[in-house]
Amino acid sequence: MDAAISVRIIVDDIPAAVAFYTGPLGFALEAQTPAFAAVVKHGLKLLLSGPKSAGGKPLPDGTAQAPGGWNRVMLTVTDIASEIVRLKAAGVPFRGEPVTGPAGTLAILDDPSGNPIELWQPAAH
Q1: Is there a domain that residue 118 lies in?
Q2: Which pLDDT does position 65 carry in this prediction?
Q3: pLDDT of residue 6 exceeding 70
Q4: What count of other Cβ atoms lies within 10 Å of the Cβ of residue 96?
Q5: pLDDT at 125 over 80
Q6: For the purposes of burial, counting CB atoms within 10 Å of the CB of 13, is it exposed (0-12), middle (13-18) or buried (19 or more)?
Q7: Which of 30, 38, 43 is nearest to 14 (CA)?
């Protein structure tokens, strides 16, 4: 079994998702078709699956797969405040203000399809 880690993300628009992940979030494009794309960063591969891809088609019982929800990719950053400023300047929408707890600070942003992405800065101990 291959040891690579991949996460499938259901998206509405492949070109918009590719532009978002390879632009503000700094992923590298590995593959792209009209229905699917793969982007990579630091060993993490995101499989961006549109409605016409095998991974994005309705399930056998007819349940439509859709973007959104609260499961999310977490990207660790060293300066969350500057990342928030940079991403907001690029027009990236956030779901609210950063939240800080004993272990660190997180902020949740949305990709173009409404999938949540978490920025995480561990607390200094």
Answers
A1: yes
A2: 86
A3: yes
A4: 8
A5: no
A6: middle
A7: 38
One-character DSSP codes across the chain: ----EEEEEE-S-HHHHHHHHHTTT-PEEEEE-SSEEEEEETTEEEEEE-TTSGGGSPPTT-PPP-S-SS--EEEE-S-HHHHHHHHHHTT--BSSS-EEETTEEEEEEE-TTS-EEEEEEEPP-
60 located within any domain: no
> Residue 62: inside a domain, yes or no?
no
Rounded Cα gap, residues 16 and 121, in angstroms: 27
b/e string for 105-120 if b means 16 or more Cβ within 10 A?
A: bbbbbbbbbebbbebe
Residue 115 forms part of a structural domain: yes
Give the domain range for residue 95: 5-55+67-122
* CATH number of the domain encompassing residue 92: 3.10.180.10
pLDDT tens-digit map of 26-82: 999 999 999 999 999 998 999 999 988 888 888 889 888 888 888 899 999 999 999
Domain count for the chain: 1
